[in-house]
Amino acid sequence: MSQEEEAHQEQQQPVVEKVSYAQLEIEDGTDELEPALPPPATSSTQNSRAKLSAAAIIPVWIVLSSGVIIYNNHLYNALQFRYPVFLVTWHLTFAAVGTRVLQRTTNLLDGGKDVHVSKHMFIRSILPIGLLFSGSLILSNTAYLYLSVAYIQMLKAFTPVAILLISWASRIQEPNRKLMVIVLMISCGVALASHGELHFNLYGFTVQAAAVAFEASRLVMIQVLLHGLKMDPLGLAPFYDLHRIGPLILISNALVAFLLNVAAVFLVGAGSGLVLTLAGVFKDILLITGSVLLYRAPITPLQVIGYSVALCGLVLFKTSSGK
């Protein structure tokens, strides 16, 4: 073959363009074509963000997370500002304004600029998750009116069990023997902690159990409906009492809650699943210890044993394949 014929054949061959990693689509195993999801944040956006290590952000997250819980409990019980619905609404309003300020003044939320949320996606995904999130916040804050901080943290250990039960009931995940053992371990631990509670309140327990159910449903819906979507992460009585607590307390309380959300965004990107789990366990232990020292909330040896069993089951759940 002559050189002119070889050159002619090379010109006829189609040119194969290199496809970047961001353009590759991952098949989800479904036969029907799903609507195209917005592309994830580009590497330039990610590189422009501040790189914080897990060792730097975890202590900040622990302090802010514990601070929000203790601050809210102080408002409800010490200052007798017993309006959890108003406080949650104020927190969310403050967070909405603070998010817009961050979006205009920083590059922390650049990943959300390329996200297009259609009306169908909003009604089907965003709205139900938002309602569940609001319900979870309101119910969990209401529980502080009837239960101690230490006992509420023990009950929150049941959240992974609720997630598994909802996932099994909706056929999202198939049960197996290992997960059943973990469910039994956490359930027995929470049951022991409840049996050992000296100031048990049935209404408060029911409210906190409903908060756990709302939170578990929200997490399952996020996993199902927003899979693959890359986003960076009343009455007049409350107004009559605002003059008593003052605007400084109200604003500082919402500011701590907002900073906790910002710290959580950095924490998710900085640590692995195991690191986040261990940080959460350490935070809960510190919070229970602090509530006992600050508020003199009594705990029994049976509660310590039960919560220890539940924590072991929680760690096993997070480190297992079914997390």
Give your account of this protein's structure.
- With 323 residues, this protein is an all-alpha fold.
- The chain is 70% helix and 0% strand.
- The chain is built from 13 helices and no strands.
- It has helices at 3-12, 43-48, 54-78, 84-105, 119-143, 149-156, 159-169, 177-195, 202-225, 237-240, 242-270, 273-295, 301-319.
- It is globular, with a radius of gyration of 24 Å.
- The protein starts with a helix and ends with a helix.
- The model is unreliable at 12-51 and 230-234 (pLDDT under 50).
Short description:
By secondary structure, the chain is an all-alpha fold. 70% of the residues lie in helices and 0% in strands.
Any key phrases for this structure?
323 residues, mainly alpha, 70% helix
Per-chain topology:
Elements: H1 3-12, H2 43-48, H3 54-78, H4 84-105, H5 119-143, H6 149-156, H7 159-169, H8 177-195, H9 202-225, H10 237-240, H11 242-270, H12 273-295, H13 301-319
Helix pairs in contact: 3-11, 3-12, 4-5, 4-11, 5-9, 6-12, 7-9, 8-13, 12-13
User: What order do the SSEs take from the amino end to the carboxyl end, as H and E?
Assistant: HHHHHHHHHHHHH
Number of strands: 0
Rg, alpha carbons: 24 Å
Helix content: 55-70%
Mean pLDDT: 74
Residue stretches low in confidence (pLDDT < 50, at least 5 long) are: 12-51, 230-234
How many DSSP helices? 13
Question: Which structural class should the secondary elements be placed in?
Answer: mainly alpha
Give the terminus-to-terminus CA distance.
61 Å
Main sheet overview: none
Overall spatial form: globular
Beta-strand fraction estimate: under 5%
